[in-house]
Fold this protein.
Amino acid sequence: MDSQIRHNPLTGQWVIYSKARGQRPHDFNQGADSAAQIPDHSAACPFCPGNEHILGEVVFELPGDGPHGWATRVIPNKFPALRPGNDPTRRSDGLYLWLDGHGRHEVIIESPLHNTDIALMSQEEVLAVIETYYQRYHSYNRKHDGMYVVIFRNHGPKAGTSLLHPHSQAIVTPVVPRQVRYTNLESLEYFDHMGKCLMCALLEQELRDGSRLVHVNDHYACFVPYAAETPFELWIVPKGHQPDFGAADPGQRAALADILRRVLALLSRRLNNPSYNYIINTPPRFRRHEPALHWYLRIRPRLTTRAGFEIGSGMSINPRLPEEDAAYLLETP
C-alpha cells in the first residue's frame, strides 16, 4: 500500500497517507537538548527557585516535600494572549465582528528543577502537575465568564516553547473555537444517530483491534488514532465515559499521571526527545455534562512541516501509517 486516505470520525477530517513521502523512524530523531546538558538551576530563569524577584505574582502554589517547599506554581503569563478585565461584549464594524481580548493566560511551572521534564519525573511529580491542571481548571470555571479552557504543553523548539524550564500553559477564551464546535458537532450527530458516545465507540474498537494501542491502565488507554494527522500522534482517552476533564476523581487523576509519564518517556526514548505539543481536549463550560462528548489528551510530535497542499486544502499528509507508529514505539530498541 503506497497511498491511502482515511477518515477521522471524531473531526470529520480526511488524512492522506503517502509512504512515498515518508522517512524511516531514525530520520525523525530531531530531539531537543537532553536534560544532561542543562543545569538544574539557572540564574537567568524566572521559573527557578531564588529568582522570585523576576518571577512576578504567584496565583497558585501546590506544596511539595522538597527543599523549596513547592511542587508546582502558577503565574500570569508575562506576555498574555488574553487578559482578565477586558470587555467580552461583541461589537460590529460593518460586516466585521470583534471584541476586546478578554480572558486569562497562565503559566504552570511544573517543577522547581530547571532541567527535568514530565518524561523524567516520578509518578508523584507528574501527579502534582495533573492536580494543578485540575485545580486551575475548576478555578477558571468558577471565576470567569470564559466559554472555553485550553490546557496545553509545548515541549521543544519546534513546538513553540520559549523557556527550557518545564512548564505548561492555560488559556481561557470568551469564545468557543470553530474547530472545537465542529468536533463537538460530529460527536453530537453520532449520538443522535446511534444513541452512544462516539469516543466510547472508537475506544471499544481500538481495544478490540489492538494494532494501534501503545499503553493501557485501569482508567485510560493510549493509542495512535486510526486517522492520525501527524507521525506518532497519540491520544490518551478515559476508558469510562467522561465528558469533562474536571470530573476526573483522585484515582483517575493518578492513573492519568501514570500513563502520561510512561507515554512521554516512551516517545523521548524511541524518538530522541522530540518536540511535541499536547492539549487537553475538553468541552466548553456549558457542555460539561453532555452525554455525547468525551474528553481526551492529544499528543502531537512536531516531526514534519505542513506544506502547500496541506495549508491550501486543510488535509494532512502523513508519511507513516498509525499501525507502523504503534509497532515502532513498542519495539525493543
